[in-house]
Amino acid sequence: MHIIRMLIVGLIVGILARFFYPGAVHMSWLWSIVLGVGGSLLAGFVGQMFQPSTARQPFHPAGFFYSLIGAIVLIFIARHFFHVV
Hints:
Layout: H1 2-20, H2 29-50, H3 64-81
Helix pairs in contact: 1-2, 1-3, 2-3
């Protein structure tokens, strides 16, 4: 059940990130899920780097808002450095 919830939230975050990013971002539903989950993981890693007190705790992905910011950053990276999206 946890995986299904993660995929649904990843889809919502991926769609919202595509909506808020300026310009058209063309990708399928599957890539929207990957974008949302990847944004959550990226934001979780960045958050853990800036809070040294959580370095010894197990990794947790970021919350909804930070996942959205992480997904937008992933779109930016893909567009400007890899010319993919």
